[in-house]
């Protein structure tokens, strides 16, 4: 499977690219917006596309034509304000969905955030972030794409355990970024996850087994 990773240079994205690149079954296409990021991935032997997520849908679609699936794990980052969050986490996500449809790519996995499907759980410190994630998810659900929405809890850089807890609703908890990446790839490999949206934190159940429980 050829997988386009939008947000490949992000912390989760880098894990996804590496795991796909090391796989014998998949090929990663890393979408980045800076030349130095492109050079970094190319040095690793990863196929790379230089596309600005704030650019045109056509630019994204042209790259997506080479893919069988799209993973959207882009984010504006905690150092930006509400304006950039809306342009990347919301509009960038929606443009990527439109590009997927334009390119004929049905499979789409998005990384959201735990609890954003309930307004009373939106982050009080940055409600615009939760709103952007929520409305991107809603758009995806109505897009006609074969979607999976993964809503991880607090992200850490701890080593992955390969074990998680998933459900439509979970209390907030933490999860290593490496395990989020592994769950993304496992979701791509399991058609049972199509049409599913779920919260995820660290747990005691192996990833593939946990996904079967949805």
From TrEMBL:
PANTHER family: FLAVIN REDUCTASE-RELATED, UPF0659 PROTEIN YMR090W. InterPro entries: NAD(P)-bd_dom (IPR016040), NAD(P)-bd_dom_sf (IPR036291). Gene3D superfamilies: NAD(P)-binding Rossmann-like Domain. It comes from the Bacteria. The gene is yhfK. Residues 7-190 form the NAD(P)-binding domain. This is Sugar epimerase YhfK. SUPFAM superfamilies: NAD(P)-binding Rossmann-fold domains. Pfam families: NAD_binding_10.
């Amino acid at each position: 499977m050829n997988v386009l990773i939008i947000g490949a240079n992000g912390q989760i994205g880098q894990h996804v690219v590496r795991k796909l690149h090391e796989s014998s079954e998949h090929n990663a296409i890393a979408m980045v917006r800076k030349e130095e990021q492109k050079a970094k991935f190319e040095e690793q032997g990863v196929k790379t596309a230089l596309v600005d997520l704030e650019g045109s849908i056509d630019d994204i679609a042209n790259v997506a034509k080479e893919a069988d699936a799209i993973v959207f794990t882009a984010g504006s980052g905690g150092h930006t304000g509400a304006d950039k969050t809306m342009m990347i986490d919301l509009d960038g996500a929606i443009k990527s969905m439109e590009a997927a449809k334009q390119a004929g790519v049905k499979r789409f996995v998005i990384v959201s955030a735990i609890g954003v499907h309930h307004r009373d759980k939106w982050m009080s410190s940055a409600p615009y972030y939760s709103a952007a994630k929520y409305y991107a998810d809603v758009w995806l659900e109505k897009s006609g794409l074969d979607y999976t929405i993964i809503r991880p809890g607090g992200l850490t850089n701890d080593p992955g355990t390969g074990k998680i807890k998933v459900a439509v609703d979970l209390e907030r908890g933490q999860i290593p970024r490496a395990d989020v990446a592994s769950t993304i790839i496992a979701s791509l490999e399991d058609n049972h996850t199509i049409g599913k949206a779920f919260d995820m934190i660290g747990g005691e159940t192996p990833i593939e087994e946990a996904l079967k429980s949805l």
